[in-house]
Amino acid sequence: MKASMVLSLIGCLVVPSGAAIMGRCKVAKKLYEGGLDYFEGYSLANWVCLAYFESKFNPTAIYENSPGGYTGYGLFQIRSPDWCDRGKNRCHMSCSALLNPDLKKTIECAKRIVKGKDGMGACLKVVGPYQAKQ
Hints:
The protein is mainly alpha-helical. It has helices spanning about 1-15, 25-35, 45-55, 80-85, 105-115, and strands at about 60-65, 70-75, 80. Residues about 1-20 and about 125-134 have low confidence and may be disordered.
């Protein structure tokens, strides 16, 4: 009995505290509902894969890249120098709006980004298999 209590306590201690991390299916559902499936030629699988590799499905992730001079925000790690209020603000929103787990502002900004001539590569720095087929 004591051993199971100790194991239960240890299990609680090692569970990640990032309550904001979403499951793959939940991310896929929100991105689909937001109209990203085949938006500008990128499949839902491309978007889900991008979300995983950029933030591990954490919509509240913030990554400061000091040598690069930018901070990435949210599910897609959208860069501050160009897309939110700590830079050129091409998405016309605060960087903190990109940290909301409802993903509405994140999807809105991602759509604006991929409509540009460089697609996902414009801000999200995606290359290779994630590029839309011509």
